[in-house]
Amino acid sequence: MTISHNNVNFIAHITPKPEHYQDCINAIQEILPATHAEAGCLRFELYENENRTQLTLVERFIDQAAFDFHHQQAYTKQVFTLYQGWLAKAVDIIAIKPL
Asked: Where is each ABM domain found (predicted)?
């Protein structure tokens, strides 16, 4: 895959409450197919740390408009609504760019 400098890239750190760890995984996994089907989505992958306390989403979209489109979708908004009761702290979304 060719990385364009117009692409936008993000790492989202998600810290669920222990009792909602699997709920958060399930919620994200449920939106993977719809997110991957978005015209502007180039990468949307879920990872977990070794001690199963934090999830990380690695995201790449063709441009900021595509990233914004993703966050406007009902399925994305639903996950953020669920997060309100499930997370130990707010999602930390970090913009990154290739060197």
From this structure: 8-99
List the chain pLDDT tens, one digit each, 99 residues: 555 668 999 999 999 999 999 999 999 999 999 999 999 999 999 999 999 999 999 999 999 999 999 999 999 999 999 999 999 999 999 999 888
Q: What is the pTM of this model?
A: 0.88
Strand order in the sheet with 8-14: 41-48, 55-61, 8-14, 92-96
Q: Give the C-alpha separation, 92 to 90, whole Å.
A: 6
DSSP 8-state secondary structure symbol assigned to residue 44: E
Whole-angstrom distance, CA of residue 55 vs CA of residue 21: 9
